[in-house]
Design goal:
This protein has 102 residues and is mostly helical. The protein folds into two domains: 30 residues, no CATH class; 56 residues, no CATH class. Helix content is 44%, strand content 0%. The chain has three helices and no strands. The chain is flat and about 45 Å long. The chain starts with 42 loop residues before the first helix and ends with a helix.
Length: 102
């Protein structure tokens, strides 16, 4: 199998494969991971969870995982993450509609 493109907005370091954008296809996509609090979470519980994840994000273990897997660190907390999820959903819906799949 030969990789023909990557879906991120920039190339993967050390991998000689263009992005879809470079090939003239105006599409980007990335996997995201999230931690979500249960309904009714208290403000102190929310703050503690946000602090824990922020600390994990700067840990040596996480930095090593990013390097090993050639992942781009795009850590976002709360509102910026919510906005990014909403944008990704809207962008995906637009692509699916263009393809006649939605």
């Amino acid at each position: 199998m030969k990789a023909i493109a990557v879906s991120g907005n920039k190339r993967i370091p050390g991998v000689n494969v263009p992005t879809l954008l470079e090939l003239g296809i105006n599409v980007t996509a990335a996997n995201w991971r999230g931690v979500f609090g249960a309904p009714g979470i208290t403000e102190p519980q929310r703050e503690k969870l946000v602090d824990l994840i922020a600390k994990m994000n700067v840990s040596a273990e996480w930095k090593k995982t990013l390097e090993t897997r050639k992942w781009t660190d795009v850590f976002m907390s709360e509102r910026p993450f919510e906005r990014q999820i909403a944008k990704d959903i809207a962008d995906t819906e637009a692509v699916l509609k263009d393809l006649g799949l939605a």
